[in-house]
Amino acid sequence: MLNTTTWNRLRYSAYAPFYDAVVSRALRRPRRVALSNVDWEPGMRILLVGAGTGLDLPFIPHGLEIHLTDLTPGMVRRASARAERYQRDVACHVMDATQLLYPDEHFDVVVMHLILAVMPCPEQGLTEAYRVLKPGGQLCVMDKFQPDDQPSGWGRRAVNILTSFIATDITRQATPMLQHAGFRIQRDEPVLMSGLFRALLAVK
Questions:
Q1: What is the pLDDT of residue 1?
Q2: Residue 139: is its pLDDT beyond 70?
Q3: What is the 8-class DSSP label of residue 66?
Q4: 21 to 28, 52, 54, 177: CA distances (angstroms)
Q5: Rg of the chain in Å (alpha carbons)
Q6: Three-state SS for 70?
Q7: Between the CA of residue 124 and those of 66, 99, 127, 144, 198, what are the distances in Å?
Q8: Which of 114, 102, 109, 136 is nearest to 42 (CA)?
Q9: How far is residue 174 from each of residues 66, 177, 200, measured CA to CA in Å?
């Protein structure tokens, strides 16, 4: 199955010019719901991992230190432009989610929206998220997941060959991944398409 970091950089570079037109409105409510679950406090340091064009920014309170990363330069340029339009002070960087260039225990909140189902190795991304979070820090996840209580059937696995090539894996299970990385899940709720999309809040 074609799912590598290089392929992700290539395809999302191609998607960048029209990414917002495709996903902005459809995923506006799921983003808002997921981020409303975070216990925000003034002065927090926030990291948005795989943040794309910065569509989460409108739902993050002001008065926080925000860092934004994405694998694709085209996405980061658009995220930086969005931050300027919203008059938000955001440090935007091209960065691989599996090799975050931040020190240990540096952030209060890490946001991973629509990235765990895309990464070739989501476990490594979660390990990095855990590393850069302070003890008690929060992880906010919103993505497409296979139900935790059942394995993928042959039909879903067949469709996944196509969806993984185009954009995303639809066979990954959230709870095992997060728990294996050391997180404790506090909230888990369906937010779109009869539970295919879920919003989870976990703590370190």
A1: 45
A2: yes
A3: E
A4: 12, 13, 13, 30
A5: 16
A6: strand
A7: 22, 9, 5, 18, 20
A8: 109
A9: 25, 5, 9
